[in-house]
Design goal:
Blueprint lengths: L2 H14 L4 H15 L4 H14 L1 H20 L1 H13 L5 H18 L11 H15 L3 H18 L4 H16 L9 H23 L8 H7 L8 H21 L2 H15 L4 H35 L2 H10 L5 H19 L2 H19 L3 H13 L9 H10 L7 H27 L1
Helix pairs in contact: 1-2, 1-16, 2-3, 2-14, 3-14, 4-12, 4-13, 4-14, 5-7, 6-8, 7-19, 8-9, 8-10, 8-19, 8-20, 9-17, 10-18, 10-20, 12-13, 14-19, 15-16, 15-17, 16-17, 16-18, 16-20, 17-18, 18-20, 19-20
Length: 437
């Protein structure tokens, strides 16, 4: 059996059995490396090489957590939440407020990929203060996770702006061109429109069918976790707004989440909104807030490096495609399914596309797929699994914001819902696109 399938299947089985994601990734990497022909020393060397690449990501999340705590202490997020709670006092405002929250989270998530490319940086700043309002509305957090994940994934796979420019133009089209296919006349939005429609179908199912019923949460746990007694001052509010603007501006200028979060945190200290003697505790609290996501991302990088080192991703693609000969429909399905498996393991569509392109392009040329269909197949194969992977920041990000009070399980409340509502429709839509384009 292919080492990639063994590693990913073991990792997913362990996480579903409530084994911590970090342990699941470690065991999956070890078993995958050994079954892929690497000895123990080679497996560990590949894993160690990978985790060094994840250190910058982990530090980014740690600083982001510290920045989020500083903003929480300023009282700004709770001022916004209090305004929402005040609307709850009106008996006719609950339904409207529920849809307003869902729409706001969707819009902010979409903007975080293209218009203001800050990725998941907004989640620990915006979501935790709204948990009390969501609980009062009995809004299912699985629905919120699906809404945020939709906004984190769909824009970059459709619009060539911000992170979409990196994914679609630089990574997707760039690697396909390097592999020997002329894509100079391809409209990438046209190629990815049908797969994106599959994501939209999944979102609508989550909102209007799967999670439309009320779900209860403990208000006491939220109050303990969210500092509901935070004093709100004009100085703290103004400083928080300036710090957010500063952090985003520095991040966009430097292309570094680390510098952006650090600049915002230091501005709180410089203005006195965060006292010097409180800074150490705030920083430590922030690191604790984002520690889990940081360690998961580090471990996922090691896991991905081991999968690549086995050299069996190409074998998995070739073996899957050879099963169907010249049947283009079944070959397209096989390529998409392999993309799902690989991205579920690696946890990043941006890292998956370069691996798959060198193998998929010759195969698509052999089977007679058009350049437009090839772009759609590879783009969809890379995006598959980003939503629904335990190690993807598209699922870890929503969990980090929704689970600050311990009432949102990463696997059962984020990973499984996003997998079912996005990967299955995306797989079907990508297959349709491969045949009609």
């Amino acid at each position: 059996m292919n080492a990639i399938l063994i590693a990913v299947t073991l990792m997913l089985a362990l996480t579903l059995a409530r084994t911590h994601v970090v342990i699941s990734l470690l065991l999956g990497a070890l078993v995958g490396g050994l079954s892929g022909g690497l000895d123990l020393a080679q497996t560990l060397a590949a894993f160690n090489k990978g985790i060094t690449n994840g250190a910058a990501v982990a530090l980014s999340y740690a600083l982001l957590g510290a920045f989020a705590v500083a903003i929480a202490k300023s009282g700004l997020p709770h001022a916004l939440a209090d305004a929402a709670v005040a609307r709850l006092a009106r008996s006719d405002g609950k339904t409207r407020l529920k849809w307003l929250l869902i729409l706001m989270l969707a819009v902010v998530s979409v903007m975080s990929q293209n218009l203001v490319p800050i990725h998941i940086a907004f989640i620990p700043l915006l979501v935790p203060p709204l948990l009390y309002v969501m609980a009062r509305l009995q809004l299912d957090r699985r629905l919120v996770a699906c809404v945020i994940t939709f906004g984190l994934v769909t824009p970059y796979m459709l619009f060539p702006v911000g992170f979409g420019d990196i994914f679609l133009n630089q990574i997707l089209l760039g690697n396909i061109a390097k592999a020997g296919m002329d894509v100079s006349g391809v409209n990438v939005m046209h190629a990815m429109a049908i797969p994106a429609a599959g994501m939209l179908v999944g979102l609508l199912l989550a909102v209007f069918v799967s999670y439309r019923k009320p779900r209860s949460y403990s208000l006491g746990k939220i109050e303990n976790a969210e500092r509901t007694g935070t004093r709100i001052s004009r100085k703290g509010t103004v400083t928080a707004l300036l710090a957010i603007a500063c952090a985003f501006a520095v991040q966009l200028y430097s292309d570094s989440m680390i510098l952006g979060a650090l600049a915002g945190f230091l501005l709180f200290i410089a203005t006195g909104a965060l006292k010097w003697h409180e800074a150490d505790d705030a920083f430590s609290d922030g690191m604790k807030l984002m520690a889990m996501i940081g360690f998961v991302m580090i471990t996922a990088q090691g896991f991905a490096e081991v999968l690549t080192a086995t050299g069996q991703i190409g074998e998995l693609v070739s073996a899957s495609a050879s099963l169907f000969g010249n049947n283009r429909g079944m070959a397209a399905f096989a390529m998409l399914f392999v993309g799902l498996v690989v991205t579920m393991g690696i946890g990043s569509s941006f890292s998956t596309v370069p691996i798959l392109t060198a193998i998929y392009v010759p195969l698509c040329l052999q089977l007679g797929f058009s350049p437009l269909a090839t772009v759609s197949i590879i783009g969809t194969a890379g995006a598959l699994g980003d939503a629904g992977s335990p190690a993807s920041d598209s699922t870890l990000g929503p969990t980090s914001g929704l689970n600050v009070d311990g009432q949102h399980d990463h696997m059962r409340d984020t990973v499984i819902p996003t997998f079912l509502h996005y990967n299955l429709p995306l797989l079907a839509a990508g297959w349709v696109a491969a045949l009609v384009l």
